[in-house]
Amino acid sequence: xxxxxMHPRTIKGIQSAPEVLESTKAIPFGLPRQLAVSAPLNxxxxxxxxxxxxxxxxxxxxxIGEALVQELTGLPCTLVLMARNTKxxxxxxxxxSSDRTVIHVVPIxxxxxxxxxxxxxxxxVSIPHLDWLFHVGGISQRSxxxxxxxxxxxxxxxxxxxxxxxxxxxxxxxxxxxxxxGIVVISSMTGLFGFPKRSAYAAxxxxxxxxxxxxxxxSSSPYVCIVSPGSIRTNMSFQALEAxxxxxxxxxxxxxxxxxxxxxxxRILNGVARGKRTIYVGRSELLMIYxxxxxxxxxxxxxxxxxxx
Length: 309
Prior knowledge:
The protein is an alpha/beta fold. It contains 14 helices and nine strands.
């Protein structure tokens, strides 16, 4: 988000709600990126949660997915890496495999239901059960709602929502064999509110949020954690879809200035290790969550004036 100034009364109101500042861990607006506090991994808690576990990560070839793989490598566990770019996954396996960490590569395309089923079948051959399922894979958007072809909307909904739901459903048997299964869903801030040029992406993330929040409330469900990242430095903008379905192919200045994917992965893993059900990851842009909830007029004012790249 762009740097902006807040009225003293607004700041006073925010400061009077300590849970807001505690939850966001936001740095002051306009400060250099280097001042962000790093989040070291809590190795003891990580071992308690992930030691000797079978862990599947979609979207593992880049961004937050790749960072999660890198942070988990070295623990005594088994990782199943899923993505379309199997060449990149094989490179990661060659580079990261160790005596403590076993890595399997399984191709998946969340846009293709048949491929999702095949991926689960292939995974079931490699591992006896599944303890953790990290939903990271997805695709974004860079187009006005009025200009976006309905087929583009359907494609984003399939990849970001329906694909994750199908994979979760197909993994039910494998996860049922685990003593303590868990699901971690990488949603987005746009799963909490809309934003210009993100209509289909926001719709898919809203659906993802609603589906897995409902699972959290069902006694028969495994542990579910929903992560809402802000601006994270990934290649998501390059892969995002334009109104006609073509790739955006450009960098997003906000993402370029955002939190590193490695730092985001550490915060996610630390939160999951602590058993958190909701995790917000980012910097000062996370204040938009609270503006939307408590100061909607300010949220709309900022959102309408923030260039949507």
